[in-house]
Design goal:
three-stranded mixed beta sheet, 11 helices, 7 strands, globular, 14% strand, Rossmann fold
Length: 259
Amino acid sequence: MDALQSWFEPLDRVVVAYSGGTDSTLVAAVAARALRDRALAVTAVSPSLAPGELEEARAVARRLGIDHRTVRTREVDKPEYLANGLDRCYHCKTELYDVLAAVAAGAGATAVVSGANVDDLADFRPGLKAAEEHGVRHPLVEVGFSKAEVREAARALGVPNWDKPASACLSSRFAYGVRISVEELSRVGRAELVLRDLGFRQCRVRVHGDVVRIEVDADQVVRLAEPEARRVVVDALKRLGYRYVTVDLEGFRSGSMNP
């Protein structure tokens, strides 16, 4: 933590790519401690953002005492993004960092920083190429934080969402190569909201045509078989237009649609 705060201190002003997840929240929290009003957290708003994420990000930013701004990103206007190829995240992050570069220039910021940690380097992350092309820096990587260390540091610092389940762009609910649309992103977001309203903190609704495959934590799978929960979920998802509603017995796995 000392090294992370020291990392920020030589900087004049920074823009934090702030999704509201634990990683970017820790970066925002430490940036605010080190730089005070010279740190700006920016959340991108688009149809690929899951319902409820923006409201939570705003609330946490207020708790942190960091200046917070939202920007509109238009990755869904890009044919390359909607094609949903293996480079989808590259096109999404290119749009994000183009927008954040303009924000940084307007705010007089000397750096745009992300919440990537060292574990991300071993994962399938095409967006890291876009970050490199835009000169985005990753303080958690440069200091050496793993995901587990991020959570522990956030807890120790009193970050309110230190144990928040992993989140991801709604487009990750579709198999690569299957074209996506704004309507489909909205529909799957509403499907996951049904599960969250039932108390499933970690959940994914993976889309396979007219079949959905629900992932929740493995120890929560049995809850979905309880009569009332099953009725609510099946009825709600069928009303959204899905024909078959299934449960993945392996439970939640981050990136389970990755190649």
